[in-house]
Amino acid sequence: MANQGISHRVNQWQKFCNDHKEKQMINPFSDWSGASHRQKLDKDDPNYGRPVEGSMTEYRGQKAGELISGEIMELCHVIADLGRKNADGSFCISFGQLFEAYTTISNKLVGMLMRARKQKLLTFPGEMLFQRRDDDVIITLFKIPSTQ
Predict the structure, then answer these.
(1) Diameter of the chain measured on Cα atoms
(2) Within 10 A of 146 (CB to CB), how many other CB atoms are there?
(3) What long-range pairs does 10-15 form, CB within 8 A, spacing at least 24?
(4) b/e per residue, 94-103, with b = 16+ CB within 10 A?
(5) How remote is the C-alpha of 18 from its chain's centroid?
(6) Which residue, 18, 87, 91, 107, could crosslink 83 as a Cys pair with Cβ 3.0–4.6 Å?
(7) Residue 83: partners with Cβ closer than 8 Å, 6 or more residues away
(8) Pairwise CA distance, residues 61 & 50, whole Å
(9) pLDDT (tens digit, 9 = 90+) per residue, 82-104?
(10) What is the pTM assigned to this prediction?
(11) What's the CA gap between 6 and 80, in Å, rounded?
């Protein structure tokens, strides 16, 4: 019975070693000498720059994306609540007013604004907004994203 336990552990260790070896063989950054048949990175590959499917990296990235999407939705709701509604259904608020109200919510306001602009949810002039200098800059929210 003791031999069966040792045999099982040896098999588990061998499987672990084989899995590690296979990962090193396909890792383009591996310096391991056995990785002679590394896959070449192709920028046209749809998986280029993406984590391995089913990996913890992919899972953590999805969770981070969900968290950021939630923060962007919250930002849009704050703009709609505090801003002035225009005739076309959009909402406007000055950066200074939003900054003062949002400091109790999050310290990532400018990053969230830039991300929301990239998603075409809102707009503001310039590349970046700075406290004090850009307090009078108007931020326009086009629409409040729907919750899905």
Answers:
(1) 80
(2) 6
(3) none
(4) bbbbbbeebe
(5) 32
(6) 91
(7) 91, 92, 93, 98, 139, 141
(8) 10
(9) 999 999 999 999 999 999 888 77
(10) 0.65
(11) 65
Angle between helices 95-102 and 56-82 (to 10 degrees): 120
**Confidence at residue 29, expressed as pLDDT on a 0 to 100 scale:** 72
| Sequence letter at residue 126 | G
The amino acid occupying position 56 is: M
Given this model, what pLDDT does residue 35 score?
A: 60
Contact 37, 25 (CB under 8 A): yes
> What pLDDT is stored for residue 38 in this prediction?
54
Tell me the C-alpha distance between 23 and 45, whole Å.
19
Find out whether 88 and 143 touch, Cβ atoms under 8 Å: no
Q: Where are the beta strands (DSSP E) in 4-99?
A: 84-85, 91-94
Encoded tokens for 15: 């499987």
> Counting runs of H as helices and runs of E as strands, what totals does the chain give?
4, 4
Helix (H, G, I), strand (E, B), or coil: what is residue 140? Answer: strand
With beta carbons less than 8 A apart as the criterion, state whether 144 and 77 touch.
Answer: yes
Q: Is 124 helix (H, G, I), strand (E, B) or coil?
A: coil
